[in-house]
Design a protein that fits this description.
With about 325 residues, this protein is an all-alpha fold. About 65% of the residues lie in helices and about 0% in strands. Strands 1-2 form a two-stranded antiparallel sheet.
Length: about 325
């Protein structure tokens, strides 16, 4: 890449580009062809980290992109999200908070400097979650109120007018599947056993043939969390039942997502035209769900089960 000479202070890039009506690349004198090639390279590398779950590599790529293209809000958005995710891997509370504070500062820059809707909205959602974890609720609320209201007729509803016959049914089924997934994830965020029970019942109602595919991941998490609550309530036999369920669902998810990724089709009547490409699943870590489950069984919340023979045998078989 060509010599760029001295660069303006990063904090001045945004204001200068708006003042002179030029891009950050033009301001820094970058060759357009060279820039396009490099941006594609960074984009591909960054997207790959969502396929392999390598958070450390994602952080490295985001930092490289920010260094090479100072003031580019997209790359700052990458870095903010990576910092926010990294925070949740830190066990030390002070380090956790410091990393989230860093993410908040970067998100603030993106929100202030971006005119691009999706990018700005992503930064708003990111900062709201980060501020919430930092217990800065009033600030989180301020940003949440900036998020645009959804329109009455969304894109899926609009597109349904463009299809006929089986294509129309397929499109509507896909919309139903997406809405179900959204509802289940909202229930997951409540972190109460009643909501996890509702998740289990809803999935079984919608997919009675038990060909759960992508929903096996949600069932895994729901079962794992219910086991924790049951241990807390002293219902150890019931907790063991849910640990067995969690293990089954984790293995089913790993089968389609890690062992044999590809295109799978639901067979339940309500979504039997919907396909899911598990090779495109986003990964938040490098381990499988079973790896995650094994690690989770070592947590203090399962200590009351340690002396049980069935729990000891269960761990050996996971």
């Amino acid at each position: 890449m060509g010599d760029r000479g001295s660069s303006p202070d990063i904090s001045l890039i945004g204001p200068l580009t708006r003042l002179f009506h030029v891009t950050a690349d033009e301001l820094l004198g970058l060759n357009e062809t060279e820039t396009d090639d490099r941006r594609r390279e960074l984009e591909e590398a960054y997207n790959n980290t969502w396929k392999n779950g390598d958070l450390n590599e994602r952080i490295k790529i985001a930092k490289t992109a920010v260094a090479e293209y100072p003031g580019d809000m997209k790359y700052l958005g990458w870095l903010a999200m990576a910092a926010s995710m990294h925070a949740h891997t830190l066990e030390n509370n002070d380090e956790f908070r410091a990393e989230l504070e860093k993410a908040v500062r970067i998100y603030e820059t993106v929100i202030e400097g971006s005119n691009e809707g999706d990018l700005k909205n992503s930064a708003i959602s990111g900062i709201v979650m980060a501020l919430s974890f930092l217990n800065r609720k009033d600030e989180a609320l301020k940003y949440a109120q900036m998020y645009p209201d959804s329109v009455e007729l969304d894109k899926d509803d609009l597109l349904s007018f463009c299809f006929d016959g089986e294509d129309k049914i397929r499109h509507q089924q896909k919309s139903i599947e997406s809405c179900l997934d959204l509802l289940l994830r909202k229930l997951m965020n409540m972190y109460k056993i009643e909501y996890f029970k509702a998740i289990e019942e809803l999935i079984k109602l919608m997919i009675p043939d038990q060909n759960y595919l992508a929903f096996s991941d949600i069932l895994y998490f729901s079962s794992y969390m219910q086991a924790q609550y049951l241990v807390k309530d002293g219902k150890y036999d019931d907790a063991m039942d849910y640990l067995h369920k969690a293990n089954k669902y984790a293995r089913e998810y790993d089968r389609i997502a890690y062992e044999a990724p590809g295109v799978y089709k639901y067979t339940a009547p309500l979504i039997n035209l919907v396909e899911v490409d598990t090779s495109k699943f986003i990964r938040t870590g490098t381990g499988t769900r079973v790896d995650e489950f094994k690690e989770g069984l070592g947590k203090a919340c399962f200590a009351p089960l340690r002396d049980r023979t069935d729990f000891q045998e269960f761990i050996k078989g996971v």
